[in-house]
Structures are given as C-alpha cells and as structure tokens.
Amino acid sequence: MTRMKKMIAVRFSLCLCFSLVLLFLKAALAQQSNFRNPLDLPIQLSANFGELRTDHYHTGWDIRTNGKTGYAVHAAADGYVSRIKVSPFGFGNVLYITHPNGYMTVYGHLDRFNDAIAKYVKQQQYAKQSFEVELFPDASKFSVKEGDLIAYSGNSGSSEGPHLHFEIRDAGGESYPLNPKQFLPITDMEPPQFSALYVYDLSGGRNASQEMRYAVTKRDSIYHVINKTTAAGKSKLAAQFDTLLLASAAFGLAVDARDLLNSATNGIYQLECVLDGSVIYSLRMDRLDFANGRYVNAHLDYAAWRNSKTAVQKLFVMPGDKNTIYSPLVNRGLIALKDTLFHQIRIKATDDNGNTSSLQFVVKRISNAVQKEAMASSPNHFAFDRANTFNSDSIKLSLPAGVLYEDVDFVYSMDNAAAQKSFSAIHHVHNAFTPLHSFCDLSILPRKIPETLKSKAVIVYRNENGRISSKTTRWDGNFLATRIRDFGDYFVMLDTAKPKITTAIAQNQLITSNHISFTVSDNLSGITQYNAFTDNQWTLTEYDAKNNRMQCEIGDSLPIGNHELKLIVKDEVNNEATFILLFRK
Q: How many CB atoms within 10 Å of residue 362?
C-alpha cells in the first residue's frame, strides 16, 4: 500500500470513528431528554439539586404542590418499579423506577401509591406484619409507560410540608444522583446573589477560625466588597476594584451566596475562584455521590451553619475533604502571597440556567506583615489522617483515621455537678462546632446504677441549644458504650418512662371510619416497636413520626357489633405501653 493510500485509510478510519461518536452522543442526548415532568403542575421548586443541608447535599428537586397533597404523580419515562419503601422517616412513601436507558427516577414523600401498587404493598405489610417495608418487585411486576399514574403527592416521612421529592440517578441506580436540570427545563432569569465575603487566616499552619467578614454591595452589575480601608499608591488595576489589605501571607476565602428561584432560596450550581486570571477553585453540582454527602460539613463553615444555619461556602478544601465535586483545584484553593503586589480576585456564582454573578476585588499583603509560626500542638493533638484516642478514668474515645477534616487540638473537660436526672458526670467532648465525618466510639463510666435498672441506662447528647437526644447504647463491662458523629456534651440518663398513648375516641364509641387514630410520644429513647390487634388479629398501623400519630386500619369488613383494638408501643429500652380501646361497628 502506498503512503497516499495509507493516509486515505487513516483519514477514513478517523472520520468513521468521529461519526460513530457523534451518533453515540446524539443517542445519549436523546435518551437523556426522554423524561417528562412527573406532575401535571408547572415545575416550581422549593429546593434544588445540590442545596446545602444538615449533614448532606440535597440530591434532587423538591417540586411544589401548592401546599396541598393528592396531586397525580406520573412516571417520568418508560420503565418498571424496582423498589418500594414505606417508612415513618426519610422519604416516607417512595417509589423507584428503573428505565431502559440506564437511569433511575425516585418519587418521595408520597401520600399513597396507585391502586395496584397499594394493594401489593398492603399484602406485603400484612405478610411481614410490619408497616415499615422495603420491597424489590420483579421487573415484570409493575411495568410503566411514560405518563402512567404511579402515585399521589404527599407529605410523608421527614417532609416539612407537602411537595414531591424527585430524583434522577445514573446507571448505578443507587449511588449517583444527577442534576435533573440536565433533563428537564426550568425558567429562571434571576442570577445568584452574594451577601458577604469571608477571609480565613491560614498562615498558622492550620485552618484557623473565621478571621474577617466583609459585607458586599452590587454596583454596575458586579458585586463589590464594602471596605473602608484604602491603600496608598494603588496601581491602575487596584483602582478598578475594592482592595483588601491582609496581614496574612496565606489565606482562604468563603462566600455567603445563594440562588433565588420561585421565591425560594436555593443552592449555587457552580462556584469559581479566579486569581489573577487563573481558576484555582471550582465546584459544580452535576453529579453527587451518596457516599460523599457528609463532606458538606467540610465544604461549609460548620460553626456558622450550626450557630445560625448560614451557608458560608468555603472556596478552599480542607485536608480531609475527599469529595469529588471540586475541579479544577490548585493548592486546595488556598492563596499564598509571596509578594506585596496587588492581585485580582474574581468569585463567580452560576445557577444551572446559566445566570451568573461576580464578586471582584483586589488583595495586597501588607509589606510589614510577619509570617505566623505554625501553631504549637497540644498534648492531645489529633491528626486528621490517622486514628486518635483519648482515655481517662471515666471516658474512652476512639476516632478512626479520616473522621476529622483537619488536625485539631482536642479539648476535654468534665463537670461532676450532675445534670438533672443524670447518672454520670457531664463530659464536654471537644466542641459541637468541629465536624466529624463518620462514627467514632464513645464509652462513659456511669455512677452506681441498680442492677434492675441497668437495661434502662442510655447515653444522651446535649447540643448547643440544650436539647437532649439519646443514643443507642450497650454495656461494655462497667462502661456504657455508643457510637457518635458529633462532638459536644454527653452523659448518662435512665429511661424508665413508658411511651404515652392517647386518643380522642371514647370507650364503646360507635366507629364509622375504617381507621382509628392515636397520639403516641416518648420522653427519651424513642419509639422503635409498635403493633396493633383488632380482636386479636394483627392490624396495619401507619406511623407518622413527625406528628406523633399512629393510625390503625380496622377495615370495613368487621361485622356489626362490639370489638377490641389493642395498641402496643415500645421504646428503645423496652419500656412498653398498652392501650385497649373498646368500640362498636
């Protein structure tokens, strides 16, 4: 073959490959666009994809339903129902549909399922004698076409108001939620807003606490720092922007920024920090990983979030933050000034409709600034990348490697003055404003507890607002042990009180409904078991945990006459309450 023929063959192969790639991309785009609005309502969001939440990123859309329940929910594309879950918590009543294009859609906080799915779920609940079920039907059980009615919108689970939680996940199905904006359009003409700039002094060799907050203002379509400090002999470049004079040679930036959509505050789709024309930090909310959700506590100024729910987003990455949403990233986004020249910084916030806002300013290191020495380590210096332990006569703490996002000098103290009804000292375990990524082990030596009450002992956590909550606890020799994911105050209490059960139904009352409702609450360890029996036959009981309500289904097949409904409720330490209601049909 001549040289010319070889060149022609190579070009032909390249053209063929290029054509195949184009066909693949077109097919992929066609598949991606093959999703419909799951509601018959226009898409109005109360929360978007990637919004910052306590301990996680929001992994879908919260679609408004006019503050009401009962709107028809449709399959967003052809597929089959691959998973069904019913729970008092989380997504409540939720459906998962697997699609032939490799994606999965999720429909959460539903009020009820369509008739066929509801019948199947109820059969399984009675078979398992449990309201809470998680089911994985065969692919042939509930096949759906795009637009089919699958359920009705609601407010079940941990929802704080009526809406539909809607997700699109990739071919992995369970691990990687995708931004629905890639598949469904939303009208949005409003750019993100900046409220404040934060500067963190990092010259001491460790991520220091917040050093300075600067208010910002919008002028000529650009956000500017409100800063009264001026620098003598500004350069022409510096005269165009606000200037920050910094004593620190190494620092990190953060912003309070948000996106407004449908009169709701939403998360930012993309954040960028540009230093002298080069991107040093970029975050983009296209695809998340459930395994990395808790890294939100490293991305946020955790103390600001715990104190006031202010979402201050760092434009630098903590050493222990292994999330994959940052790219590109230069020196973890940290800025180190090696001169006393003026340096231009532009922070850009973009929503997922392409609307953009910019905050621009100039930084200059003060010439006589002295570089801080590295912070001296305390005797209890905990390194983020290795296991750490702390032990005393009355407490044991064990942190695996990777639990911390940065090195900390661990601080511990105890208060022997007993809290009300406590059976141990109050242990101040570091502070509640330092985040933990995953679980660590905590053991506490309690005061003398009578043998008959040891099964009622629980470790409780007291947060910064004084609210207490119990932890699942076990005995380990003379110590009580639990697993924790928060620093703060811990001590031991006894839970000897039974759950409380009340109802508005009077004894021997005539019941015309198919349901009887009860109010159920527990004072400490929390309700973990509940069962109801009508005339000694197991009865389906729907538990609405956020409203402390249980609804027993007595059905319409009961014969006319007198009947007995028995509701039995247990908390985590097996305190049991029983309510017997006599009624007539």
A: 22
pLDDT at 4: 45
What are the contacts of 2-9 at 24+ separation with CB within 8 A?
none
Class (C level, CATH) for 45-182: mainly beta
Spatial distance between the Cα atoms of 62 and 239, rounded to a whole number of angstroms = 44
Handedness of CA 251, 256, 261, 265 (dihedral sign): positive
* CATH for the stretch 500-584: 2.60.40.10
Q: What is the pLDDT of residues 206-232, one digit of tens each?
A: 555 557 899 999 988 899 998 654 444
Residue closest to 318 by CA, chosen among 329, 309, 307: 329
Closest by Cα among 390, 397, 342 to 367 = 342
Report pTM: 0.89
Residues 6+ apart with CB under 8 A from 165: 60, 61, 62, 63, 91, 94, 106, 107, 108, 109, 159
Domain boundaries, the chain: 45-182, 193-365, 381-494, 500-584
Which stretches within 210-272 are classed as H helix?
236-239
**Given this structure, which CATH class describes domain 381-494?**
mainly beta
Contact by Cβ (8 Å): 423, 493: yes
